[in-house]
Structures are given as C-alpha cells and as structure tokens.
Automatic annotation (TrEMBL):
The keyword Transmembrane helix applies. One of its GO terms (cellular component) is plasma membrane. Its main location: membrane. Belongs to the DedA family. Pfam families: VTT_dom. It is a multi-pass membrane protein. It comes from Cedecea lapagei. The chain crosses the membrane at residues 12-36, 56-77, 145-166, 178-199, 220-241. This is Inner membrane protein yabI. Residues 36-159 form the VTT domain. The keyword Cell inner membrane applies. The lineage of its organism: Bacteria, Pseudomonadati, Pseudomonadota, Gammaproteobacteria, Enterobacterales.
Amino acid sequence: MEALLEHFITQSVAYSLIAVMLVAFLESLALVGLILPGTVMMAGLGALIGSGQVNFYYAWGAGIVGCLLGDWISFWLGQRFKGPLHRWSFMKKNKALLDKTEHALHQHSMFTILVGRFVGPTRPLVPMVAGMLDLPLAKFLPPNIIGCLFWPPLYFLPGILAGAVIDIPADMKSASFKWLLLAVALLLWLAVWLCWRWYRSGKRGTDRLTRYLPRARLNWLAPLMLVAGAGSFVALLQHPLMPVYWDILWKVLSH
C-alpha cells in the first residue's frame, strides 16, 4: 500500500501537492485527526521532499491550505453543532480532554490555539471547541493562521532529514554515518521527551510511565540525557560527511 501511494504521488507535482493538502486537512479536521496517523504520513511526505521528489515550498503551501481548511471547517462545525456534539457518546468518552481544552481556551485562548496546533491530541480538537464556545473570530484567526504557517515544515522535518540522508552517495562509505545520524536523532528526541516529562511532572496526573519515571528520577535523568544529546550532536558536526549532508539539505530547502 505504501509503495502504491508513493508511486501515485510521485507521478506528477499536482498529485504530490494534493496528497500533502489532503493529509494536512484530515489531520486538522475535527476528531478525524485523533484516529489518523497524520504525523507519520507527514514525515513520509517529508522524506519525498528530502529526496528531491517534491518541492519543499510547494508542499509547504499545500500544507498551509490543508491546515486552514481543516481548522476553519472544524470551527464552523463546533459553532453549528455544539448541542449535538456535547451529547455525542464519543465526546462523553473523551470528556476529560474536552474539559481541559475548554478550560485552557477560557484562560488563554490565543496561546491555546497556537500551541494546540502542535500537540497531537488537541490539534483536531481545539478549533472545534473554540467554535463550540463561540470564540470571536478576532481571537481565533490570528493564532490559527500563525500555527498553520509553521506546522507543515515542522512535521515535514524528520522526513526531510531522513530523505536527504538517502541521497548521500553510497560510494562515500556513508552507511556508518547514516546509522550515526539516526542514533543522534533518537538520542535528541529522547532527551527532549524526558525534559518535557520533567517539566510537566509537577502539573500532570500519574500515568503508566510515572512508575518508571518519577520526578525524583527525572531530576537527574532528563538533564543527563540533554547533555548527552547535545554532546553527540556537536561530535556529529565534526564528521567528514556532514558538509555533504548540509549541501544536500541546502539544495532541498533552497529550490
């Protein structure tokens, strides 16, 4: 299926951009984004950008259009069907998330709309809830537009980085560099995730991971991983193939 999708979207620029816009739209659409693996799909499209098969700026524009359409339709649905939505069984099952979103919008509407665009569970929910609360357009549109401008490249980025690695010539003995790049990327991701849990540990309730990652352990583990990640990244910058990798990335992002 993935091979068929890749074959389809690489046949023409138009198909590629339609695919980007559709994924961004569905990922942003009320409730649909909760069940769609949009993050993985955006990273996959980013890999095509990184390998030079899709133009970065065209894809960015298509992603912005998809985001805006998804968010604006979600906002309208929230305004138009707020009564039935409150009574819908699906919403009752996710009442805790709905209540948190409503509270955040009441307290800090513009900040919540902007940050909610980049948080998976709230991305397809915030615009709809904003509509259900009859939030004025003057408060909804500015942070929404800003979020939609920056969301596509951020979610393309992992795929772009991976796609650019693929284009490093094999005759340059790049296999070890590719594995090293992957290891550093995973280490940095783990460090950021642990720091986020550390920051949120005093504000969130317990979950399954709290047993293994209590605040006392995060107090030393998160900073340690952050230092390790930063150190490995600095060491990676000294690798002989880094100039080649930067050159490929520059070509992708400048054309």
